[in-house]
Amino acid sequence: MTFGDRISKTETTYEALPHRLLLCRRKTRLRRLAAILAAEFTKKAILYDKFHEAEFGRRDLDIYLPELYHKQSELIVVVLCQDYETKEWCGLEWTAIHALLKNRKDDMVMLCRF
Question: Can you tell me the distance from the alpha carbon of 7 to that of 13, in angstroms, rounded to the nearest whole number?
Fold first, then answer.
């Protein structure tokens, strides 16, 4: 299944959800993927930390993240790396993602590794 199969390009969806796609974690390859997706959907539609540094610079990001994941994103793409389980923010992200999976919203989560 491709990204295009998983996310909508309709304006209705875009207006309903501020972020069509949320990318988790920083890697060189992830930056390239984010740039490709931003060219297709715009940077505003891709919730990637480098595109939204002011929004992610919040003091209460640990409280704000679940809102972004649960209510403001259409698809969460989790790119797992070797250090994923040891990084602090990955743990916070995973808590929000796990809650989605637990509530049977697995169609909102795409796990990747590269």
Answer: 9
